[in-house]
Fold these 3 entries.
Entry 1:
Amino acid sequence: MQLQSRKKLANGVEMPILGLGVYKMTDRDETLAAITKALQVGYRAVDTAALYYNEAEVGEAIRHSGVPREEIFVTTKVWNSDQGYDNTLRAFETSLKKLNMDYVDLYLTHWPVADKFVDTYRAIERLYDEKLIRVPGVSNHHQHHLEQLLASANIAPVVNQVEVHPYLSQQALRAFCAEQHIAVTAWSPLGRGGVLTDEAIQQIAEKYGKSSAQVVLRWHLQHDILIIPKSVKAQRIEENAQIFDFELTAQDMQTLDALNQNKRFGQDPDNFKFDF
Ligand SMILES: NC(=O)C1=CN([C@@H]2O[C@H](COP(=O)(O)OP(=O)(O)OC[C@H]3O[C@@H](n4cnc5c(N)ncnc54)[C@H](OP(=O)(O)O)[C@@H]3O)[C@@H](O)[C@H]2O)C=CC1
Ligand SMILES: O=C1CO[C@H](CO)[C@@H](O)[C@@H]1O
């Protein structure tokens, strides 16, 4: 089934192109229902973080889904206040316990905390060596952060998860990551919903008989960007997965590319306030 389409990462692991993001899912029943629905309609990846306080629900929904654990790709992240070498190892153990799993597929440094992110990544490399994670990665790393890591890493980060959507296309960072064989996952792939009322996107959507969300997700796909849209609504979870049955023309891709305005809905990693 196409829905389970996976991308082969630099270390040979296959990661589903589409996953469910679960940020802001704090209500237990709502979280369980959303993940269950996603798995039912073919999603095979879930993106959580220690920060989201729902790792336990992610684990529970997966265990009760009937889908074998090894078919599902679970991402979690070490939060900023837990960074540094020893703290990261401890934070990972806590996440693993909450997930109630014996390994995590992808473990990420959530943000590049100055003076800590290099040591944080060293701990992630150790977890990879110990086979407790299948893929080592980072999030919110600009090119200069990656260059700093690459200078000392034994294993280059395999994934960088950053904010990407048509208003923030991250072309330069994506090109650098491609050169370094680092896969890019888009967080807020729908711009937190903020790009969906764009007139140009709506016009393209109408032409294909698709929704704005589907067109935006398809734009990511055609740029080889992994996606983790979040929704708690069953109908939208399904809608966001129906993106494998049409193709945007080169001209429509160009129109969408031209919407870039370097506009962030989240924070800039260089100005992030690590105060929560
Ligand atoms: N590494 C990092 O620092 C970060 C990682 N992330 C990850 O990325 C995931 C996705 O990003 P997120 O910030 O949640 O934003 P998204 O771009 O995924 O947008 C989510 C918003 O769009 C709405 N939505 C979803 N589908 C549709 C649709 N088909 N039509 C209309 N509205 C829709 C959702 O509402 P509703 O739920 O009501 O449907 C929600 O308000 C997060 O959940 C998290 O896992 C996010 C931020 C930072
Ligand atoms: O993952 C995340 C969810 O969104 C938060 C608010 O923008 C981010 O800070 C965080 O990185």
Entry 2:
Amino acid sequence: MATRIDGKALAAKVKEEVAVEAEQLSRRPGLAVILVGNDPASRVYVNGKERDCAECGFRSFEHALPEDTAQETLLGLIEELNRDPQVDGILCQLPLPAHLDEDAVLNAIAPDKDVDCFHPYNVGRLMIGDPVFLPCTPAGVMEMLREYGISVRGKRCVVLGRSNIVGKPMAMLLLQQDGTVTVCHSRTPDLAAITRQADILVSAVGRVGLITADMVKEGAVVIDVAMNRNEAGKLCGDVDYEAVEPRAACITPVPGGVGPMTRAMLMRNILAAARRHQAEI
Ligand SMILES: NC(=O)C1=CN([C@@H]2O[C@H](COP(=O)(O)OP(=O)(O)OC[C@H]3O[C@@H](n4cnc5c(N)ncnc54)[C@H](OP(=O)(O)O)[C@@H]3O)[C@@H](O)[C@H]2O)C=CC1
Ligand SMILES: Nc1nc(=O)c2c([nH]1)NC[C@@H]1CN(c3ccc(C(=O)N[C@@H](CCC(=O)O)C(=O)O)cc3)C=[N+]21
């Protein structure tokens, strides 16, 4: 029987701590959320983040824009939010509609309000080991490992996926904790041969049933970042949970695993941004 890593419970604990700390501030932290278009999944995520803000005693300012919003309009809004002293963090929900230039949008967010840690400046600071903000999803994974007493030092870590949101920053945080890290992607041949070596396996691909029992070493820690819908429309990750669970030492469920932790880490970043902004005044 593997230990089930309860992301939902840990996220609740983190948010309580954040709420207590937020009370000490002279002004309530604020998050601006930008949502372009009508993607139902994005709507659900944004609602979740706004609920988290309320739980932490933060203000949230939602900016829902139509699908056909022009690039200049979006950049204009970001400029406005960059200047707004009530806004400590700005989150532009991804993915954006195809006609918008995602890189240009993420570049426009002031680095000191970039609570997603997507701006090249913050990515660079992370890369050199002197981060301003921690990337929410990878930081959520690290917090889970820490809480469950799982040391990364000297462990063979295998990360599946190399996106800027999850895979790459995940590999960086594991490396900074002295893991020996391998990153796999769609061009990696014989994935199973690599995953079988993992002491800590992090899957962030987005494919139902990708990780089967034969791909996992006995006693491994299995972290499932993915957020998929199966044929029945049920939320699930990359890992065949039922099959893999008996082999693993620890495993995260979907839902109730990495997802809630991502949001809790976002709250931490907003608190950190607010502290920095208030110290400047
Ligand atoms: N829990 C949470 O908080 C979050 C969850 N997610 C979820 O995590 C998953 C990944 O998200 P994201 O990183 O944004 O997705 P992307 O689609 O940007 O990246 C997916 C990665 O998986 C790789 N990949 C695709 N097929 C395979 C394969 N067969 N074997 C190995 N690697 C493969 C791709 O390789 P290549 O680069 O070669 O194309 C790519 O690097 C999604 O399910 C998403 O919904 C995302 C963000 C937060
Ligand atoms: N600018 C930006 N920042 C992001 O951090 C970002 C983004 N865009 N775009 C999409 C991805 C995805 N993501 C999730 C966060 C929480 C859950 C989450 O809380 N999941 C719950 C279930 C939610 C449900 O029921 O649908 C769970 O796993 O238990 C899921 C996915 C953040 N992302």
Entry 3:
Amino acid sequence: MEKLVIQGGEPLAGTIHVHGSKNAALPILAAAVMVEGVHVIDNVPNLLDIQVMLQILREIGCKAEFSNGKIVLDTTHVHSSHIPEHLMSQMRSSIFLMGPLVSRFGHVQIYQPGGCAIGERKIDLHLRGLEALGGELKSSTDTIICQGNQLKGAEIVLDLPSVGATENIMMAAVRAEGVTVIHNAAREPEIQDLQNFLNQMGARIIGAGTSTITIQGVRQLSPCHYHVIPDRIVAGTVMIAAAATRGNVTLEGVNSQHLTSLTHVLRRAGVQVDVKGDIINVCSSRRPMAVDRIVTSPYPAFPTDLQAQIMTLLALSDGMSTIRETIFEGRFKHVDELCRMGADIRVDLNTAFIRGVRRLYGAAVEATDLRAGAALVIAGLSAKGTTVVEQIHHIDRGYENIEEMFGLLGANITRRTQTAKIVNN
Ligand SMILES: CC(=O)N[C@H]1[C@@H](OP(=O)(O)OP(=O)(O)OC[C@H]2O[C@@H](n3ccc(=O)[nH]c3=O)[C@H](O)[C@@H]2O)O[C@H](CO)[C@@H](O)[C@@H]1O
Ligand SMILES: C=C(OP(=O)(O)O)C(=O)O
């Protein structure tokens, strides 16, 4: 079992280039199976979830080579539209193969997807979307089979703007007959990236980034070369870490527009954030101010994927902050771990009340999910003494070599397989 050992207290300093987006790359890789041929997809981060996606794609017949952020994916010999259960259960994003495989083969057999334990995470909107396009569903407790030899365009209203359901329906609709309109679609930048990828393959989609997406079905698609957008959540994590350690960090190759809600919150906390095109500088030399009424909501509001990390910063602030989590009902598991490091946080239903403390102290803590893990790393970087973060496979799902990333900014952080000794503070 690997763990991260962090000797905290050093302000982060330096310049960093942020890797490509996990949440954009995963649906794009799934979408590539819709057409036979060789795709080249670059700026792909080397993460556990990407490796699982490649394992699934190889299992159904793709050839994939991955080096230096570039994936050459040959989808010519895909021979199966059945995703084995042991692979489906490894991550939530395995569900993205449903739309593309129905589109190519008229049939798919999948199981309930896995993923971080942050809430119930139903897939009813994905399934209802496919049904609306004419897919015939048979599902038992675990197995889901969808048959749909010629899907037909439809007007679909999502009950809530689900990112994954919007993407799955978009992919299924690309080759459906006629026009599909998705109302109340999610507006995340990763959906725009998927639209751009699909259009580069020959699809005719407009509206991604707004809440109405229109897909005019096409017959022909062809493989393409595509560059994935930068990861706004990794960028946000580094920005918060810079603020929490009272450092000075410049991020390059980011899309600052994707980070507007975080920038706003950091500025409210008194952190200096300077934006020049795709370069962001974050600089802070004093204790952050408390920020109340942060509410996680669909894009462009504050992202749930940065909720745990911003909580770490606010745990160190001067005053009382509040965060309301409205997306996932089980996404406060990091609270207990932060409290073990000296934070003073109370949770009431979906709201966390954070009374800032002057200092966090190193401790042995456990990453309960991906972003909870990132929050604990930030806590460790800013704490006095040594922090050991366990269960870091969660962190490896979304951060490429997190110890190297923060190490380049001067952090004292190492990955170890042995039990580390905790120094008394
Ligand atoms: C790979 C990827 O892109 N993951 C992101 C995606 O996850 P994901 O696509 O799973 O998130 P959704 O937007 O679908 O989920 C939002 C809410 O809708 C609910 N829901 C969703 C689908 C459904 O069929 N039924 C249903 O009830 C979920 O339980 C959740 O409460 O968006 C989330 C919200 O920004 C992010 O935290 C994840 O990092
Ligand atoms: C929840 C996340 O991812 P996923 O949807 O892949 O579980 C995340 O990236 O924070």
